[in-house]
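Ligand-bound model needed. C2E.
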Amino acid sequence: QIYKIRTSWDYGQHIEKESKEEYELADKEIIDALDQNNMLIEYQPKIVAKTGELAGAEALVRWEHPTLGIIPPNEFIPVAEESGVIFKLEEWVIENICVQMNKWTKSGYDPMPVSINISPQHLCKDNFSNKVEEILKKFQVSPSLIELEISEDALIKDADTVNANIQHLKKQGITVTLDDFGQGVSSLTHLKSLELDHLKIDKSLIDNITTDKENGVIITSLIQMAHGLGVKVIAEGVENEEQLHALVEKNCDQVQGFLFSKPVKTNDFEKILMSKVLQ
Ligand code: C2E
Ligand code: CA
Ligand code: CA
Ligand code: CA
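Prediction:
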C-alpha cells in the first residue's frame, strides 16, 4: 500500500524547505528502514524542575531516509498507524532502548528512566502489555526504568483492552504517563480511574503560561489536582526561563524543552548522562 506524505518539513539541512512536492511513502519502506537500521532514536532529557538534575529521557524516533534525508516522526507515524506497521516499529523502539540501556549500565552510568511514546493503536492491541513484558525480560531491563507515554485518544478508543493493558503494565512496575494533556479534549477522570502515574502538560499550554493569565490559573489548579491524586506533573516544550520560573512556582515536578536540550543522538546524551545537571 502507498501513502502520500508532505515533504515540506523544516528539519535540518538535508531537505530543501521550499520543496512541497508529494512523495509516495510506502509502509513497506518503513519495514525496510527497520531491517536496515535506517531508523534512529534521539533522547531528550527530562529535568527535575526545582533542582535542575537529570530525571530521565524521552525517546523520540527519526527516520534516516536514504534519499529524502531525516524524516520526523509526525510524517511517518501516521503512515505506520494506518498500515499497522506501528506495532513492529514500536517493538523495535522498545528493543532498541533496552539494548541501549544495557550498554549504559555496562559503561557504568547510573540507571536512568527512559520514556517511550506509544500509539493509541498499539495500546488497543490485545497482547501489547505481554509483548512489553516479554521484551523487558529478554533484555533483563527493570520495568521501573521504563515509562510509557500514552495519549488520551487511546483511552477513548477501546476502553476494556486499553484498561487491561494499562493495569498489566502498572503491575509489572512500568510507569504510565498521560501525554499531551491540554491538546485536545482533556479530562482528569482517566488519571483517577486508571491510576496513571504521570501527567504531561502539552507544549500548547506551556507556550503562553506567562502571557495568558487564565492559562496560568488553569495550570496551577491542574498541578494541584494532579498532586491531590498522587500524580506527578511534567511540562513539555519549556523554552525560556520565565516559563521555567512559573512552573517551579506552581510546583511542577519535571520539565523538558529546548531551554535545557533538544532531543540528541546517543553519544551526545551520554555527555549529559556524565554531567547530570542541566541548569
Ligand atoms: P510528543 O510526544 O509531544 O514529543 C514532543 C515533541 O516536541 C518532539 O518532537 C520534541 O522534539 C519536540 N520538542 C521538545 N521540546 C521542545 C521545545 O522546547 N520546543 C519545541 N518547539 N519543540 C519541542 P518530535 O521528536 O518531532 O516528535 C513529534 C511527535 O512524534 C511526538 O510528540 C510523539 O507523539 C511522536 N513520536 C515520536 N517518537 C514516537 C514513537 O516511537 N512512537 C509514537 N507512537 N510516537 C512517537
Ligand atoms: Ca511524548
Ligand atoms: Ca506534545
Ligand atoms: Ca504524543
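Confidence is low (pLDDT under 50) at residues 6-21.
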